[in-house]
């Protein structure tokens, strides 16, 4: 899943990028409201982590602009402002959740996953397709009860497939949701990662679930094709 993290503290921004990328997220970074709005015009994202105390235009202004345009992307406010009035102002402006600094990183990740579940088609915290189970909170994947070790990028791709099980997923969709803005759109990195993922999912006695559709993309489907 692709996140936009908007934070004017360079050290915290880098730490959030590193930590979230290690959990399988693709992270776009912005140090100002203006940069954040530019990135949002260029790339879709699944969730925004938004600091309120930004230089020039503040986070609440960004949030109000998004909601005025009927953009329903989930927004988690991350800020040092801890007064009840500040929390109420953020929620009234359209925020979906609120985390106060300093914060525990595991809690931040848990809240991100909770918002993604709430906004997506899958209500359960554990995703299941056929005999594959993926637990985003625990960063675990099992097939037929056996743990499968995936890289962060493979995990992100599989999670995206599972959230769109039975649907055609194009290479462009994978790039937009599983890579940040620095990806090379002309390379074959999607095919390389999907091929590695398919090999890891191919266990003895297991049904082929990840199918390639020539000239179109891929489908994760438990029905034989």
Descriptive account of the structure:
The structure is a single chain. It contains 8 helices and 11 strands. The protein has 225 residues and is α/β, with parallel strands linked by helices. The chain has 2 domains: 2-119, 3-Layer(aba) Sandwich (Rossmann fold); 127-220, Arc Repressor Mutant, subunit A (Orthogonal Bundle). The strands form 3 sheets. Strands 2-1-3-4-5 form a 5-stranded parallel β-sheet, sandwiched between helices. Strands 6-7-8-9 form a 4-stranded antiparallel β-sheet, covered by helices on one side. Helix 4 (84-92) links the parallel strand 4 (75-79) and strand 5. It is elongated and about 55 Å long. The mean pLDDT is 87.
